[in-house]
Amino acid sequence: MSDGHMEDDCARVASRIRGMLARGVALGPEVLHFIDSTCFNPTAAELAAVAGDESASERDPLLALLFAPDEAFQVELEETLAGRRLDEERVAGLLCRPPLQVRFRFPDAREALGLEMTPPLARHFVSQLRIERSIPADLSQALESAANVGERHRARVLIRNARVQLTDETVAFLRDCLTQVGLRDGQAWECLSFALDVLADGQHPADIFQALADRKRWLVKALTRGRKQGELLGQANIETLISQGARLTVIDEEETRRRIGCIDRICAAVFGRLPPPGQLWAGVDAVELTSEEVIDHWRHSDCNYSGR
Question: Tens digits of per-residue pLDDT, 166-224?
């Protein structure tokens, strides 16, 4: 693709972003909580003063939060990004020419806050859009059957934002996840997010099945630790246990079981077998840790518990 084509694509994307920002930005709960807890429920004028005061300690984190695109913004922009070769610096520069005033709307009766998109803020904003990262053709094709149009854009944003090296091996694994697991239910979306998380944590693991198996064993250990800790807390109070040297941790059992369910569903669908759970506590077997969907698939296929 020629530089002329890239310039045209950058101009189109910058124009689209400017148009979206020109509508104004509704402040989300996270940003609003930071503003009200840090600046004590300020008016728009007071907040503008903080944003313009380079000596204020709250200024930089405030601007970083305000000029950070949320997922909904990225999903809306995704269709414009598809298939384009882009340069972050060019797009960021075009966002500031001509000057752009962004209005941030409060959910309450406070007036809107107007701030100019300066070059540093534009670079910060565009860098978080990950516009230079292309989605491999194999993943785009797999998404065609995995989800409807709107959901495809959301999945592309997840992949675009993920800290994953898109090598031949990781792309093939993610393609199989999308093809075999799909994105037609809530747990399927959790599976995609979890798969991207494992690939990022593993820094391009050589054996993806083994990386999932290792994660499952770690999660089962966490559940075991939580169960034993619960038994100890039934026998003594926290102060007594701490004085005895016990190391207490918070285990979200429901979340941990959901993650184990994701691992089993991915492995059953992609690899045709389930990873072993590792050592279990007394009275609990592997089936208790597996979702009904995976058990049904396991019973009606050649899947089995095995490791490498």
Answer: 999 999 999 999 999 999 999 999 999 999 999 986 566 778 999 999 999 999 888 88
The per-residue DSSP string of 146-207 comes to HS-HHHHHHHHHHHHHS-----HHHHHHHHHHHHHT-SSSHHHHHHHHHHHHHHHHTTS-S-
81: which residues sit within 8 A by CB, 6+ positions away? 13, 129, 131
Helix axes 253-270, 292-299, angle to 10 degrees: 30
Q: How far apart are CA 156 and CA 67, in angstroms?
A: 21
**pLDDT per position as a tens digit, 97-128:** 999 999 999 999 899 999 999 999 999 999 99
What is the residue extent of each domain of the chain? 3-127, 137-201, 208-299
pTM of the model: 0.82
> How many Cβ atoms sit within 10 Å of the Cβ of residue 94?
21
- Which is nearest to 156 in space by CA: 168, 146, 169? 146
Distance CA 221, CA 204 (A): 24
Q: How far apart are CA 124 and CA 57, in angstroms?
A: 18
